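Dear colleague,

Thank you for sharing your sequence with our group. We've completed the structure prediction you requested, and as agreed, I am returning the results in plain text so they can be pasted directly into your records. Please verify that the sequence below matches your submission; if there's any discrepancy, let me know and we will rerun it promptly.
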Amino acid sequence: MHGLEIRILPVSWLAKLLLLPIAVASVVLPESAPAAPATTESACRVSRCLSIEVFVLVPAGSRSAPVHGQRVPGSPPPPHRSSVPDREAWFRTQVRHANRLFAPLDIGFQVSVRRTVDGPARIRTRKQRDALGQHPRDPRSISVFLVGELDDVDIEGHMLRGVHWRKRTDRSQTWIILSALDDTGAVLAHELGHYFGLPHSRDPRSVMNKSPHDDPAFVDRVFTTADIATLRTGLGARAPRSVVYDAIRGGE
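Please find the predicted structure tokens below.
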């Protein structure tokens, strides 16, 4: 039997043992002993890790998974899916990709809080985008709302993969909205670029270039040298507002 073996020794021996720096005991750990927590694939591996708080919008009284419906115009058709993918796994892919692209800046992202909140599965209007700000949010974290579908409020009938949104009545309040329509896994990185001050780019290599071309494909685009220079300024201005984790100690 696995466990701790204790032997009763004569008093004279016990007196000698008290003089020893360590106790004599034979310990065998069971095979089921818990190991140290493993680092997840989406965890930060850099010196500064910024906190993301995730809000999953679910219609009141419903626990249904996100709907993958209308294809984003100009995007390649999504691969065949036998079932709707798990939203958590889908978002972990987004975080892993963002961490790869931000690694040259020694910056990464990690989910600190995940909440399921009541809200429409489809965000259609500017008013609905603004209304997301009514949910209590940590001002030190980057807020990301996950929705089923996201309408382009400027082009009727057009759907978006994501948006970096500023509340119209208070533009200091910002958050990211991601649509489950995205099948590239790269949209969070694009919207985080906007969050830290990057505009859209015409450079075909840049992840900030949203045009539909395949050389390179959207998932293979990166932050260019010019993007990184701008990001260094933007990160300096906005990162102090976020909860920053030491990737080695794991503390705040």
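Summary note from our side: Residues 1-41, 64-85, 244-252 have pLDDT under 50 and may be disordered.

Kind regards,
the structure core
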